[in-house]
Amino acid sequence: MNETMTFQELCDWYFDTIAPVVLKPNIREGRERDFKNHLLPTLGTLTLREVTPMVLDSLFRNLSEDGNKRRFYRLKEAWLGDRKERKQLSRGTVSETTFYAARQGEAVEEETAERIAAENGIEKDALFLEVTAKHGLSGASINKLKQELSAVFSAAVKKEVVERNPCARTTIPRIDTVSGVYLEEKECRIFVSLLRKQEDRQFELMMLILLTTGIRSGELLALYWEDVSLDTGLFEIRGTLVREKGVWVKQTPKTPDSCRSIYLPEEVFRLFRRHRKIQLENRMRLGSAWADPRLIFTNRQGGPLTNAYLNKRLKALVQESALPKNLHLHSLRHTYASLLINAGVMPRVVADRLGHASVRTTLDIYSHIFRQTEQDTVETISRAVFP
């Protein structure tokens, strides 16, 4: 046992030795960021003996009251908009989508603000205003931190660094479960009509693929031309697009079951073939300046799109409609699942289509829809037996 080691030293050991073996690179980066923002400021200098369940309970309570450590910044007025007189900036390694959003006045994280400032040789505070909102973390976010922390202590117990895992005896704030937003059948038709009325045909196609296949947005963004048959409309889901140390890479899927084959409906496949033709024309026009010819869905320079960009476009699309204003990309996956469930498709089939590792995952996530379907079934039998 070595309980005189500090928590900072334990984290250094874990992220240098254990994490590279058990975690994907982007997950490891995210956890290191979580520890830096939320755990190390309080626990870093404590010895492992001093990290007790009571200390952790106090930390989790403080995080629930004032735990938002992510800092956001917005460009100052002189650098905003499309005005000819606005000051010029270079985006450097910042993605075109993120850079454009910043120029339009959207808030960006501190790391992005620092990269833009450094690229242009300007002090961050001279270029940006901090607009960080002060608020506590949700119960779900704190529970996620506890699970990440528990993984570190579990590794320490296994290697006989500590005797027990203090996370096992902690109490976290209550987690409020909220059913995912999804569209009813009539709302789906309204959604499709809105897509047809707007001008971006690539965006229309992407939203229709999410709606009619239920694939994850990260899986959609990672699709290469080699993953699809232009003759049959069969898609091979082989990975997700993630950002590792500022570089976009295609990563293996979330679970082995996430690797799957999916056919596009004929109506969507017709749009897909049109998209292929348009992209080839754009690639010929830009030539070697086209960033990645493998990608099916790209920005104007042939680079990858982001979830943030698509969510922004989606929210703008439904803003003036009767559809839910909190609709987001994952809502389309929920919608796909609900349509299958309400049509009486077996849970095992739904799980396979969604790429879930088990039927239990599907039943847990969509239990509210299955309950409603069962109630509808009972009412159908009741009407048949007691007219």
Secondary structure layout plus pairing:
Elements: H1 7-22, H2 25-43, H3 53-66, E1 72-75, H4 96-103, E2 108-109, H5 110-119, H6 124-127, E3 128-130, H7 139-158, H8 185-197, H9 201-213, H10 217-221, E4 234-237, E5 240-244, E6 247-251, E7 260-263, H11 266-286, H12 307-318, H13 329-342, H14 347-354, H15 359-365, H16 367-385
Antiparallel strand pairs: 1-2, 1-3, 4-7, 5-6
Helix pairs in contact: 1-2, 9-11, 9-13, 14-15
Overview of the structural elements:
The protein has 387 residues and is mainly α. It has three domains: 7-68 and 136-169, DNA polymerase, domain 1, CATH 1.10.150.130; 72-130, no CATH class; 185-335, Orthogonal Bundle (hpI Integrase, Chain A), CATH 1.10.443. 52% of the residues lie in helices and 7% in strands. The chain contains 16 helices and seven strands. It has helices at 7-22, 25-43, 53-66, 96-103, 110-119, 124-127, 139-158, 185-197, 201-213, 217-221, 266-286, 307-318, 329-342, 347-354, 359-365, 367-385, and strands spanning 72-75, 108-109, 128-130, 234-237, 240-244, 247-251, 260-263. The protein has a three-stranded antiparallel beta sheet with strand order 2-1-3. Strands 4-7 form a two-stranded antiparallel ribbon. Helix 1 packs antiparallel against helix 2, helix 9 crosses helix 13 (329-342) and helix 14 crosses helix 15 (359-365). It is globular. It starts with 6 loop residues before the first helix and ends with a helix.
